[in-house]
Amino acid sequence: MSLSTTFHALSDPNRQKVLDLLKKKEMAVSEIAAYLNITLPTLSHHLDILKRANLISSRRDGQRILYSLNLSVFEEVSEKIIKFLSLKSKKPKLDNFED
Amino acid sequence: MSLSTTFHALSDPNRQKVLDLLKKKEMAVSEIAAYLNITLPTLSHHLDILKRANLISSRRDGQRILYSLNLSVFEEVSEKIIKFLSLKSKKPKLDNFED
DNA sequence: TGTATATTTAGATGACTATCTAAATATTAT
DNA sequence: ATAATATTTAGATAGTCATCTAAATATACA
After folding, report:
1. What would the pLDDT profile of B40-74 be if each residue is shown by its tens digit?
2. B3-85 maps to which CATH number?
3. What are phi and psi of B69, to 5 degrees?
4. Which nucleotides of D are covered by protein (CB under 7 A)?
5. pLDDT of amino acid A88
6. Has residue B76 got a pLDDT over 60?
C-alpha cells in the first residue's frame, strides 16, 4: 500500500471520524452512521475506501456487519507516516518512492 | 488549516517528493523539477497546493523563486497528525472536528 | 532596448470523488 | 413464506484533480 493511498484515505473528514470511532471499539455500520451526517450508501463507500487502504476490516454478525480497525496495519502505517514527516531523515531515496 | 487539507496536500506522490527535497534545503523551481517527471506548470500547481496548505513558502532571488519548508508549521502539522494517528487517544471529540 | 531565462497563469481534458435515490441482497423474526 | 432490518450495489450528478500546451509575466544580460 502506497503512502499516497493511505494519505488519500485519511484525507476525508468523514473517514477520519470513522477511524476515530473504530479506535475505541468494533462497530456496526448503522452504529457508525449515527455519528455522521451522510446516508448509509455514502458511509458504505467510505468504509470501502478505508478497507481498500487496509486500515479496517469487517465481519458479519447476524444481520449486522461489524467494522474494526486493523490494529497492526494501522500501527505500521502510522510508523511509515511518522517516518515520512520526520525532518531528521538524511537520505530521502527519491527513486525508491512506491508511488 | 484542517487535517483534511493537510492530508490531501500529502496525498500526492509528486508533492511528497517536493517536501522530501525541501527538507534538505531551499530550492528553485527548476531545480526541483529536475527530480520529477512533470512539466513546470504542473509543478507550479503542486507548489501552490503545498503553499496553500501552509507547508512551504517562497521568496524571489533574481530570476529564480526559491521554495523552502515552513519548518515550524511542518512540525505543528506533524504533531497534529501523530496525535490523530495515536491509538491511545481517549476522547475523540467528534463534534469538534474542524472539517 | 531586445533577448534569454525562470516561473506562473489561462484554458482544456479525462479521470476520479463524494454524494444522493432507488433497487438488490442477506439475515432474522413472525 | 412473508415481513422487517441491515447493508451493499447500481446508476446518476456536480465538483475537484492532475496533467498538458500555449501564452503571459518577471528578471537579468548584452
Report:
1. 999 999 999 999 999 999 999 999 999 999 999 99
2. 1.10.10.10
3. -70, 135
4. 5-11, 17-23, 26-28
5. 80
6. yes
- The length of chain B in residues reads 99
* CA atoms within 13 Å, Cβ hemisphere of B22: 25
Pick among 1.25.40.20, 3.20.20.60, 2.60.40.1920, 1.10.10.10: CATH of A3-96: 1.10.10.10
DSSP result, B41-85: HHHHHHHHHHHHTTSEEEEEETTEEEEEE-HHHHHHHHHHHHHHH
CB contact under 8 A, A87 and B4: no
In this structure, how many other beta carbons lie within 10 angstroms of the beta carbon of residue B21?
20
Q: Which three cell numbers stand for residue B22?
A: 525541501
CA A62 / C1′ C25 distance in Å: 14
Strand partners, B59: B66
